[in-house]
Write a structure and sequence with these properties.
The protein contains five helices and four strands, in the order E-H-E-H-E-E-H-H-H. With 135 residues, the chain is of the alpha+beta class.
């Protein structure tokens, strides 16, 4: 993945209030010696999701990225692009193998659905259990 004319190759929209997300983005920042990734913290009070044509809830539901040409990506593909941008292309290639790809997609979908609960961040209005179920 090439850096785009002094700019970024991929922008990641992450929840900086999430301890796991913050840790992973910290690792990626450390690895991103070439400045190929733009990191955008959606938990920053100055962040305006409406300017992107997305809702805050939409961006909180799963990870999103935007390529330098404006193309939106989400889920595991964001992580693939991020890790390829910092030089882990051979490992990324393995995640695209049939079966492995579906396993990663499924695993991420489960994580994204339960991320707030797993990181101890449930609050009023989040992590609700559907009626008729108990925690």
């Amino acid at each position: 993945m090439n850096n785009v004319a002094g700019g970024f190759a991929v922008e990641v929209f992450f929840d900086g209030a999430c301890p796991l997300c913050r840790r992973e983005m910290g690792l990626l920042k450390w690895c991103d010696r070439g400045g190929r990734i733009r990191f955008t913290d959606i938990s920053d009070p100055a962040f305006d999701s409406q300017a992107l044509g997305k809702t805050h809830d939409e961006l909180m539901a799963r990870i999103y990225g935007r390529l330098a040409d404006g193309t939106w990506i989400d889920g595991v593909e964001v992580f693939r692009r991020l890790y390829a941008a910092v030089g882990f292309g051979p490992i990324v290639w393995l995640t695209r193998l049939p079966g492995v790809s579906q396993l990663f997609d499924f695993g991420y979908a489960v994580f994204a659905r339960h991320r707030l609960r797993l990181t101890g961040r449930c609050s009023e209005g989040t992590c609700r259990v559907p009626k008729g179920r108990t925690r």
